[in-house]
Write a structure and sequence with these properties.
By secondary structure, this protein is α+β, with helices and mostly antiparallel strands. The protein has a domain at about 95-225: Homing endonucleases (Endonuclease I-creI, Roll), CATH 3.10.28. The chain contains eight helices and four strands, in the order αααααβαβαββα. The chain has a four-stranded mixed β-sheet, covered by helices on one side. The longest helix is centred in the first third of the chain and has 45 residues, at about 45-90.
Length: about 230
Amino acid sequence: MAKSELQEKAKELRKSGKSIKEISKILTISRSSASIWCRDTLLSSAQIEKLHQNMIRGNYRGSLIGARIQHEKKIKQINDEKENAENVLGIISKRDLLVLGIGLYLGEGGKADNRVHFTNSNKDIILCFIKWISLFGITTNDLYCRVTINKVNEDRETFIKKEWSRLTNIPLSEFKKTSFIKTINKKVYKNSKHYLGTLSVRVKGSAKIQYKILGLLEKMMYKVKEMPA
């Protein structure tokens, strides 16, 4: 195609609402040539708006692609680190579990009274606590619990209690009266079924075990402080 024909074609494409980038790609010419050939082409308000909307969609699409690439990169890095963690951790011993549980209880466990109790919203952390407390001879038959949920989820109370019961193997009969709170959820759940509130797990008649746990907490903190720098 002759240069003059390319110029006319570029102007036609411009009038149809194509961007300089699109014209350059369609005619296999440089963007600078497309820009020079089309600079005198007058566009209507509708055409200008169409170009603007195309630009917005293009930027948005580019942002989505960039976000997807970053997400996939993050997932790959996490999976790589999981494999590395498997090699680092190896088989978890009872002592490993004991130390992990001390850390969990130090952060989320009850320390002010004579009862062993632990509260969290993360089901995996709750299950870690139940596994840890078994080191003291405690089974799920020795546990009772209480669910705390947002008032807006009151209609899901039965489902939530059943779900916690299924996850923990604690009988529904050991679930005390649900506690309802009125707060705005900071976390937005795409699927409301993922919201289970928080669970407070308590050990029946646990004063002696509480003393043992508090002793472990105090000694652990002391030993950490005495570690050489």
